[in-house]
Amino acid sequence: MMRLKRFLRYLAPNLVTFASLLFGMSSIVSSYDGRFAVAAWFVLFSVLTDKLDGFVARLVKGTSEFGVQLDSFADFLNFGIAPATMWYAYLSPSTQGGARLLLRASGALWVLAVTFRLARYNIVGDDPRCKRIFFGVPTTLMGGTLSALFVTLLKYGADPSGVPLVATDDPRLLGALHVPSAVWHYWPILIIVGAVLMASAVKIPKLGLSKSKVLTVIIFANVFCGYAAGATRHVPEYLTAGASLWLVASVVWGWFNHDARLLRPPPIFPKEDPHPSKLPQRPEEDLVPEEEEGEGEGYASGTGTTAEHKV
Q1: 89 in a domain, yes or no?
Q2: What is the pLDDT of residues 135-150, one digit of tens each?
């Protein structure tokens, strides 16, 4: 019974991560079906569950290395592949020549930047320098911000057809604003800027309690409202404004804060070559290091011994 409870405790946060993966896959399917606003909302659903799995893990004390790796794969799909697919599927029919080449290049750069950002965090995330800040804009923040902006532009008539692709009963916080379709000419540039910010060493403070109680209340009130807006698929302009404000304020803070400016990101490559037996093993690796071959053959032939057999 205790083993079952322990299993369920560790399973709970990973079920949330699996749900996040389903949102990412649903976004890709929606993009291929031409339902681009729905695709963007699925990415935003992934933003909500990306924070929820960590909360559940801490709540039930179910944090595990498996969960950490699974979360990284989910982020790659949800904030790398899904947004790039959505933007390319939407914009490619209306672009050609050099514009389409730029669109492809920006999408490829976005996916590479997400990959680099996640891989870097996986190896330096436990470094003391990363305790209160991120080096590089998190993929969740960058992917969520651009996806919210994307659906906001669709809401306010930026589609080439001039027809809003978002439900007309959604409150319009920006009134009668109409965004011209020419705005999409600049979207690949925005993708490139986002990719550079993710792969950069810009310092972004982690969301948490502030020394100012008023600021803490404001931050978490906006987070709560953001969850409500995302869950109900309403007012994407509010999500865009909140995320953009936090992103810009964080980048400015990281640039002007004296302590933050002194920080340097941890190295991603080892300072010296490790011993062959200490090399990390790649998932597809099937070669056994030479000094371990004899030991492996012993086990294969049934002559190997283990610590349990030694008295």
Answers
A1: yes
A2: 889 999 999 999 999 9
